[in-house]
Automatic annotation (TrEMBL):
InterPro entries: Acyl_CoA_acyltransferase, GNAT_dom. Residues 1-122 form the N-acetyltransferase domain. GO terms for molecular function: acyltransferase activity, transferring groups other than amino-acyl groups. PANTHER family: ACETYLTRANSFERASE, SPERMIDINE N(1)-ACETYLTRANSFERASE. SUPFAM superfamilies: Acyl-CoA N-acyltransferases (Nat) (SSF55729). It holds the Pfam family Acetyltransf_3. Gene3D superfamilies: 3.40.630.30. This is N-acetyltransferase domain-containing protein. Signal peptide: none annotated.
Amino acid sequence: MRYLSSEEVVVFALCEKESDKLIGWLGFDEWDKDNQVATLFIGIGDRSMRGKGYGKAGVQELLRYGFEEMQLHKAQLMVLPFNRAGVALYEKVGFQREGILRQMVLRDGVRHDLYSYGLLKEEWRALHPKA
């Protein structure tokens, strides 16, 4: 992963191991330093690279960076319910669903709910005792 930062945004490039080819981005935005909270985002544009573990590895490293280097208390994110791979990934790495924002997104003329997820530092530490 490669790194870029500003006052409220931290971005990493997600690259394929073998070729170092850029396959996506992930990071934190809406970084509230006073409350030690930031919003996680990820996008893997190359569909052929999805499902190969890059997202999980990237999110796990990003969370380590967030909790250890940025001193976050909480990482949060929003995801559409029909993004089953995303929901499964976030729950697998420890995020808990905190709520549903009803009919929050309009896509192709259809309204969709949005799931809100959060992961606290102590929850992350319990999953990674050596970190």
